Amino acid sequence: QLQLQESGPGLVKPSETLSLTCAVSGGSISNTNYYWDWIRQPPGKGLEWIGSVYYSGSTYYNPSLKSRVTISVDTSKNQFSLKLSSVTAADTAVYYCARRFPYGSGSYSPYYFDYWGQGTLVTVSS
Amino acid sequence: DIQMTQSPSSLSASVGDRVTITCRASQSIDKYLNWYQQKAGKAPKLLIYAASSLQSGVPSRFSGSGSGTDFTLTISSLQPEDFATYHCQQSFSIPGTFGQGTKVEIK
User: Fold this and answer.
1) For the segment A67-81, what is each residue's pLDDT rounded down to a tens digit?
2) Which positions in chain A touch B36 (Cβ < 8 Å)?
3) Overall average pLDDT of the B86-93 stretch
4) pLDDT per residue over A66-121, tens digit each?
5) Of A67, A114, B54, B95, which sits most exposed with the smallest number of CB within 10 A?
6) Parallel/antiparallel/unpaired status of strands A120-124 and A11-12
7) B92 with A110: Cβ contact below 8 A
8) CA A22 – CA A9 distance, rounded (Å)
9) Nearest CB partner across the interface for A96, out of B43, B94, B99
């Protein structure tokens, strides 16, 4: 059974960089069928897609966050990571990692998120 | 970005009720619409993908329909374990966007 587990500091100061890691177990992050994503949810609000990484290192980011986001993959450790710079209180959220399955074909495929981590709350405060 | 709007934002229903949740996209998304269930303090769980395809292991009382801009999630007979928040999500274009959620509460 595939499992994803987020880890990282629960408190980050304003203007600093938020760093999280998602460890994948029960399957290989190098499986060519999947992408690996970060999604967040501010308290009491809806879900927001942050970005995605393929095992090769190719990335896709939400344009609204692109200037501050870096997502990377470490296939040797079977994990991927999120860095979000210059954080403010608006970045306070539960951060989830998830597996994306593209079920179509072609240069762009529709997809769904079929496995999620449990989520980790990151609070931005001094 | 494509805006996804769910209605209602919340509803109260009883066990055994038929429940319908609507999701509207700001432009056509073909049938590239997913539904997730989220219980309090937990991660979302995939219920339906491609508007009407039931994810493996999901009870058949859940069904989805629609295409273009208007979609529905139906729970044919609400069970105690179905009280949760439901989210729609489009995968037609980047960035994939979610609705604001519909909370289903016990009446």
Assistant:
1) 999 999 999 999 999
2) 113
3) 97
4) 999 999 999 999 999 999 999 999 999 999 999 999 998 777 789 999 999 999 99
5) A67
6) parallel
7) yes
8) 13
9) B43
